[in-house]
Amino acid sequence: MFKPSRPNDSRPRIAVAGATGRVGSALIASLVSETLDLVALTRNPDAQPVPAGVSLAVLDFDVPSSLEDALRGADRLFLSHGTSSRQVANEIALIDAAVAAGVGQIVKLSAMGPPSRLHPMDWHMQIEAHLATLDIGYTVLRPSAFVDILARAGAQVAGDSWGGAAGNGMVNLIDTRDVADAARVALLDDAHPTAQRAYHLTGPRAVSMPEVAEEISRLLGRTVTYQQRSPKEQREKLLGSGLNEFVADLLLGLDQLFYHSALAETTSTVKELTGHAPRSVVDWLSENIPKFRK
Predict the structure, then answer these.
(1) What distance in Å separates the CA atoms of residue 154 and residue 291, rounded to the nearest whole number?
(2) Helix boundaries (H) for 12-142
(3) How far is residue 30's CA from residue 76's CA, in Å, rounded to a whole number?
(4) Taking the model in full, what pTM does it have?
(5) For 187-196, what is each residue's pLDDT tens digit?
(6) Positive or negative, the Cα torsion across 48, 53, 54, 55?
(7) DSSP state, 263?
(8) Out of 1.20.1250.20, 3.90.950.20, 3.30.160.20, 3.40.50.720, which CATH number does the structure's domain 13-143+176-202+266-276 have?
C-alpha cells in the first residue's frame, strides 16, 4: 500500500495514541532518542506538552476522517485509551483507521485478569476480540494493576483514614514505567512484524494491602493501618468522597479482584523483554513517600 512521503522515509514512523497518559508519556520519553519519526496522538493537545522533535496529531472520534489522517504514513501504532464508556468504540475505530491507513503493527495496552463483567476488563476483551479478526501484526500487553493506584491513598494515609475491601488478598502491582519499557521493545521489534502475540506483565511479587501499610509505616516512621471494610461500606466511602458511581464501582471492583487474589500472578515477562527486573512496590513507595506525609 502506498504511504505518503515523510521527512525521512528511511526512518520508521511510530504513532502513540494516549501520548499524554501515564504509560504513553513514559513511552514517548523513552523513544525520543531513537532514530525514528514519532507522532503523538491525543484528544487533548493542551493536557501535557510533548518533547521537542515529536509531532502532534489531534484525534476527534466524532470525526472519523481525523483518525485515518492522523495515522497516514505511520508504520506502527501504540494504542492506549483512558477508561471511559466510549473506550470500546474509540479503540476499535482507531484500530480500523490504522488498518485503512496501512499501519503494519499495533501494540495495544490491555489488562490482565480473568474473564469478567468488570469495567474495563470486559471492554479490553471486546477490543482484543476485534483485533484478532484483522490481518495485521499486533502485540497485546496485559499488565496487572498499576502501582500508581496507591497514590489515591496518599491523602487517606495522611489523614489516618486509608482502607478498603481488599482484605488480605494478594495483587502483583506493576510500575507504569515497566509497561512503557515493554511497549518500547514491542514497537522496535523488527524480527516479528506480522506476529500476533500477548504478554502478561507483572511486578516482581504479589503483596497485600496490609503489607503495603507495613512498608509505608517503615518509610514514614509511624504506624499506618489498612482499615478493612465490607464492599458496601467501601462503596459508601468512595461515593461520600465525591467520586461518581462509575469511578466508585471501578475502584470497588479492583478491590474485589485484590480480595480474591485474582491478580496475584507473577511472570518473568518484563525481565525477558526489557533485560531488567521489574520495579517493586517498595521502589515505588520509596520514590513517592512524600504523597503519604501529613
Answers:
(1) 5
(2) 22-31, 64-71, 87-101, 121-131
(3) 16
(4) 0.91
(5) 999 888 888 9
(6) positive
(7) B
(8) 3.40.50.720
